[in-house]
User: Fold these one by one.
Assistant:
Number 1:
Amino acid sequence: MSILRGQVPKTSCDTVNRRKEQLGTGPQGDWSPFSRYPYRGDDLVSLGVNVDHVANIRQARKAVEPDPVTAAMLAELAGAQCITVHLRSDRRHIQERDLELLRKQVKTKLNLEMAATEEMISIASRIKPDMITLVPERPEEVTTLGGLNVVDQQDTLQGAIVRLQDAGIAMGIFIDPDSAQVEAAKAVGARYIEIHTGLYAAVRGEKQQAELQNIIGVAEKAAALGLGVNAGHDLTYSNVTPIAAIPQIEELNIGHNIVARAVLVGMERAVRQMLELIQAAKRCC
């Protein structure tokens, strides 16, 4: 069966890169990190695939497989427009080795999630991902539990943003859907925000509709201020459609649910199925 039909082959980085050239994916540098839709001329939402959970499986056994770098390339082959990783201070999943290889191999754009610490600023300045999303980080958390409190950390965050944007990296902040946080993100110089969708994903019925309306309002406010608008956290094949339909949202970052499905059906098929839902939502709504 052809790779184009969703089979996940045993492959190496070189094999996947040759396949990318056959498919016509442009080389790194063909796009600007400040443009909305690299390689695209439509108004559909981009999909960023977070491969942290592939690294989680590897680190559970302190092994060499599965490799998140190979997973990222398969995601790109399936149509992902961005690869996202979170390099944590405790290195519980993604390692510096992964980030270095991803910088060399990713052909779309590389989004690094990180805390605004001196260690991470130094690493990011050296590796130069295309974009950085600043996130909160707590040692005891299983996953990121909420957005960054920009209002209370403006001086620290502004300093980090200035340093990294001077290095040519597009800077954004992961925030809760709150107007005050949007205004603070604009004030500290962020180019974009990523709206935390965790509460929307955690509730149902009228409560979920209320959360959706809140996200819509925040997205509208951010766009009016000239910020790019991304969203993510706990989005699934079941709940992504209403978020993808919001006109101001440019990119969704999804990790766990795609990787969970990829374990059963393969990375390419899992990514394509999510892309189909996202694109259908934008076309019909």
Number 2:
Amino acid sequence: MASFSKKEVFPKISSIIDNALFTNQTISRDEIVELVVLIHKDMVEKASAGYKNSDLFNVAGNMVDWFSADITKKSNVAIPWIGKYVRTNRLINKRKITVYSLSIDIAQDEEIKNADELYFREGAVKQVLINAYERNAKAREMCIKIHGLTCVCCGFDFKKAYGDIGYGFIHIHHIKPISEIGCGYIVNPEKDLCPVCPNCHAMIHRKSPPFTVEEIKDIVSLSQTLLTQVDAKC
């Protein structure tokens, strides 16, 4: 019996997987566990009270394993994610680790009927045998085309910092988390999406509901101001 609310935890795990699969083809079970602890530490600490082994990574690991198990069992609470991900076992550091990727059906772009409009349908619910969210790569591409590849919160540019290997790398933040959307909505890449670096993205999700982009920008700005003042005194 899980010592946490699956209805609370599962959407957060799915959101972590979705954000990772925006920039990578796969994400491993251990990487998901690390991000659950990093982004939702308060939630994991609260759940740890019901475990003999209260280590946060152990508790988060149980959450991720429950998520996977419920998808396999096709339980009612896992309906939004059944068929969304392909889960395969890979040998990583001599351990069998579950690796997640988007299923082919989900990864395919939805046909855009009105190509002249700056709107895409993202999070559309498909009824095959299950409900699954549809992600749209074109929305990400348009967001980057509009906003660029610089983090809107702190101004970090991976190309400037790392050269050619950093070009094109950025996280895309949904101002309204995709995991909270239960039916199709029309997303405007200019207003609803923005590029953020992984650090700022993690900070945005340090609480629930997440910090706004403006709140994180203010925090970064204040921190930079204080550092400048300290440097001036030295």
Number 3:
Amino acid sequence: MVKKGQRTTSIKKGVRGSGVGVRRKDQSPIPNPQFPIPKAVVLLSGGIDSSTTLAIAKSKGYELYALSFDYSQRHKIELESAKKIALALGVKKHLTIKFDLREIGGSALTSGMEVPKSGVRGQGLGVSSKNQSPIPNPQSPIPVTYVPARNTIFLSFALSWAEVLSAENIFIGANAVDYSGYPDCRPEYLKAFEAMANLATKASVEGQMKFRINAPLINMTKAEIIKNGKHLGLDYSLTWSCYDPQPKQLQVKAKAKAEAKAKDFSTLTSTSTLLIPCGRCDSCLFRAKGFKEARIKDPLLR
């Protein structure tokens, strides 16, 4: 019983009972166990696009599950970058799956073929201007850096993990503006894969979930991608883009050439701190163009 004039304290219902606990002013809300944080599987190569995609997924509030691949590619510096990015962005789990695409070959990234240099404009591939988003010249050949069906392989692994995690959203850093014309980076391909994913999984056909393939960078120029990443606080010095890294010190150059001639690039990974971007492959040129148009200094080249 409350006496006349006595102050009372009102406790509203629902806050504790609903699990939506609120802490002090400078603390984060207590998660509601009835509405868990949604999960997302994000393909992470360690390059600009995949790293920015991971940052975007984080900004949207997803619990992040990053997926990288050691497929016996030409170099593995990008995998070191992927580890750094995953750590910096606080992913829940970073999984690297290993398999050997060199057994199949068919690409300069998985065989002894030379990586073409300074070939972006020479091949007639789409390169954006400041206010324009061209498409690749259909008469131009797809460059030899294309790895046969790579995104289909990667997305299939991502789909498998997503089904196990009950994660409806898969993120990929595909881009159809500043890119080398790879067919598995196009919107129509991603739409088709999403349709297939919802026909080919137990969770989907039983109505438990509907998978979505998210490509937030698909219509951005490289400059726009970099600006978005900078806005989200992404450290691009942790990323790697070059297809054909070169030795930084003269004394290791001869050894690296011998390894390349023998089609064995595995030892290059152990000397990543001595390697620098070639500056002339498609990936380097797109990166340089992006930073130039964004008017930002590439921290990797400082």
Number 4:
Amino acid sequence: MGAGAMENQTDCIAEEGAEEIAPEEAAKGRSTLAPPLSGALHLPRDPQILARLARRGVTLVRELGETRQDLGARIETALMALFRDSRRGTDFQALHEYASPRLLRQISLGCRGQGRRLDPRELCQDAFVNMYRYASSFRDQKPYSFHAWSQVICRNIIRRHISRRSQPSLQALPEGPFEPVDHRAGPALCASLAEDRTALLQLLSVYLLHYAAAFQALSPRAQAALHLVEVERKSYAEVCEILGLGMSNMKMIMFRSRKRIAAHIAKAMGEEPRERATQRRAG
């Protein structure tokens, strides 16, 4: 589509009663584009944006049976898809200028009843921040895709801000003996717990080394029985079937193996075995 054809499309839409916005209003930060749902429908002003939309097959005039609202929604969807694919700042600026008036009205309606607790303009900017951040998730499958997608974003932002502001404010805490106790650990307690944790890990490592040495001293059959019971969590009956042992023999192997391991660890760590300690106390 040539430049002359695009100018004809623009003139065709602008001649439908477009109302110009005063330059002083544009200087205040208001969009210089009329909202898509108003009586006059403007196209994006950037000729490069118009040319790129035309190259993507976007019709810039109303199609047969299409209303101004349908055309505005379709152009919004096309602008969002253009930014999603290009990630250019100029494309997003064109989308912002074109869609922000409609979104601002939508958010203002959603904020009714909240008084001055919510600023629709601030929420509108938050909505566009989310659109910029999650542009890759946008799908332009239908003409009203952006309309529906942006409506969900605006609704979630309004709900989130209302929930934040509805939380009760903190009251002054009492002082003196009625002051609440802070049960969090202080720096000294945190340091002490860290030292205890380190010492416990070191002790556990030494214990495991002694356990491995005691395990290697057992017979192969005792090692297999212990592994099947302690590691693979098999029952005595299953181990008996695997190793070809009787139940009484299996119980004896497990009892002696555990007893030998405990005695080996106690001797290696300089502790008195439990049986000797009991006999000494009894004597």
